Each structure stands twice: as C-alpha cells, then as structure tokens.
Amino acid sequence: MTPSVLLLLVGLLLLSPASSQPIGSSVQDLNNRNADFAARLYRAVSSRTDDNVFLSTFTLSAALLALLSAANGPTREQLLQGLSLTGLDSQNLPDLFQSLSTTVQQGSLDMNLREAVYILPALGFQVSSAYLDLVQTKFRGNAQSLAYTVPQEAANTINLWAQEKTGDSVKELVTDLDPQTQLLLATAAAYQTRFSPSFNASLTQDERFYVDKYHVVMVPMMFRTDRYFLAYDRSLKVGVLKLPMAGGAAMLVVLPDENVAVTAVEEEVTGEKIQAWIRQLKKTKLEVQLPRFLLERSYSLRDILQTLNITQVFQDDADLSNMGGDQGLKLTQIYHKSVMSVDESSDDVTAGGGVIVFSTPTPRLTVNRPFLLITYLQTTSTVLSIGRVLDPSRK
After folding, report:
1. How far apart are CA 347 and CA 81, in angstroms?
2. Residues 339-358: what's their mean pLDDT?
3. Range of the domain at 280
4. What's the pTM value of the predicted model, to 2 decimals?
5. N or C: which end of the chain has fewer CB within 10 A?
6. Residue 59 and residue 146 in one domain
7. 125 and 79, same structural domain?
8. Phi and psi at residue 104, in whole multiples of 5°?
9. Same domain membership, residue 98 and residue 60
10. Runs of H (alpha helix) within 83-179
C-alpha cells in the first residue's frame, strides 16, 4: 500500500477511535510509566542487533519491580529512575502492579499468555518469608536459592521451570551459568495469538517478503477482508494497523512506507507515541495480508540495563537487604526469553470465511516488508510486548 492510499484511508475512516476503560489514576500512572520503560528497553535491545526482536516487556517489568522491592537506599533510587518510576512511592508499587497485573491476566486469558518470573539467589542465601510472599502474590513469581556451583544442574532447574510455566513453549532459557553467580533473574513468556476475527488458513498462500532491497524471501501470507482500525503517522511515515485478539488484547502492526527504514522508525518509539497511535485508530474496510511467523528470542540483559542507567544493583555496594539476609548481595545477570506464534489459530467455532464482500472497491494493506509489532490490552492500553520482524522466515 502506498502512502497516498494510506492517507486516503485515514480520510475516509468510518468510526471514532475506541476509548480505553478508566482505571485508578495511580495505576494508570504506573501503566504509562511501564509503557515508557518498555519503549526505552526495546530501543536499547533493537539497536544492538540486526535480527528479529521480541520482548515481553510486561513480564520484565514484573521482574524488575520485584527486584526494586528488595532494594534500599541509593540502589532503590537508581532503579526507580531507570524504570521511569521516579516520584512514585516504592512502598505502594507492589499493590499498584498487582492491580494492573490482575486486569492484564483477566483480559489476556484467551490470548494464552503464559509468563514466569524467578528470583534466584545463590545457595546459602535465605530469602525472607515476607519477600517470598510479596513476589508470589504481587508479581506472580517465585524466589528460591540455587546451587550455581554446579552450573549445568542449575541451568537444568531453571529451564525445566520455564518450560513448565510456559506450556513447553520456552526451552533453554539459560545455557552457560557463572558458578560465581550471586543473584539471577529469569523471565519467560509465551504468546499464542488468536486474532478475532481470525485469518482463514485456506486463503493463506506464499508471497514475497522484502527483507531489504537485496534480499527477498517467500513466506506464508495470511489474508482477510474486514473492517479494521487503522491510523497513519505522517511525521514518521508509518501505517498502524490494529488486529484485535480474542479476550481483549490486540496487536499493533507498525508498517513503514516503502522508502522508510524500520530502524529509523523504532528510534522514535516511546510510550507516549504508542498511546498516541492507539488513540488515533479509526475503523475502515480493508484487505489485510500478514505473514505467518514465529518469534523465539533470548537475551541476557545485564549490559542492556546498564545503558539505561541501572548499574548499582550489579555492583558490590548494591543494597538488596529487603530480600533477606545481609546487605552485600548483588545482581549477576537477568535472562529473558519470549516466544510468539502468529498464525490462523482461532478458538471461535464461527471462524472462517476471511472474505467480506463490500459494495465498493476495498484497499489492501500488504505487510511485505520489515515492521514493528506491539501487543497491548485494549481496555487499559497496557503494553505487553514489543517486537520487530525483519525476516518472518526466521525465528
């Protein structure tokens, strides 16, 4: 689709944007700050790789807020700043996140989001019962000590846990562990998208996807004609398509114009920009072609977090005394692996068709070049994950 067609579509949009359901002002403030951190973290990760990217940013927020709850003094203050939470009362954050997380869990059940957070100090460190209870009840995670002196057994324990928590979707979350590890954060998430309305598998056919001007791959391209929410950002020259999912979540597909690099667009992605795109969405009739793909990405985030000014928690003077034991424990590494499957799957017994006949010609949006994807909960605009698809034929 050319920029002129996208602009024409925006001019012909039929309905006003869908509004978000109000939530408490304090929870909404945390929600907005989480979106800002999600965008900052995504930019930091994507700038370091030339491959596909996928981060379950909401899962990572849970892990880092659990870590924040263990921190005191300058360590806590720096974490608040690094997580875009400066000015908020850290004592109230667990309750606020629990409220937000409960809303997300209720709204994403049909998306089959499985996620897990593990706080893992070295064997010999006694996690306090109060901190363990907080991690379990407020952040849906767990905390226990682990013997890193036998690295392979420790890795097997973590990988088995991640596999169980994600329904076998996330495997080999970690490989080589440092036997000198003091504290490790392990996070995993798996998304099975079920679009509503879904794409009809009988209409899927192989089409060209232009990875760049020198590289073209053939990929299964799904198809559906329907009424979709769409926006166009003239400043960045991108189309923004909303694909609703069963249960209340949705995916934004951010497609740059043909002469615009996706890397140039992602440099401008902020929490505020994401919220602006959501507000600008309006409904129009549209033919959509979207590649079927599977993303499976793993990251060690120590160096990435330090570029976001989260440094002291990794140093010898870190204060994580709220976790239990004596001051002196420091974070060694944080691992994250997330998986997303995007296909024609549907739980809707009425799903099928994929073609609605309109009385007038219907424009087509073909996602056949690199794009960004953002999943969020529609009622609260809570950002769940951010990714980049440069080549849908690769995980």
Report:
1. 42
2. 64
3. 3-21+195-292+352-389
4. 0.90
5. C
6. yes
7. yes
8. -65, -45
9. yes
10. 93-107, 129-138, 151-165
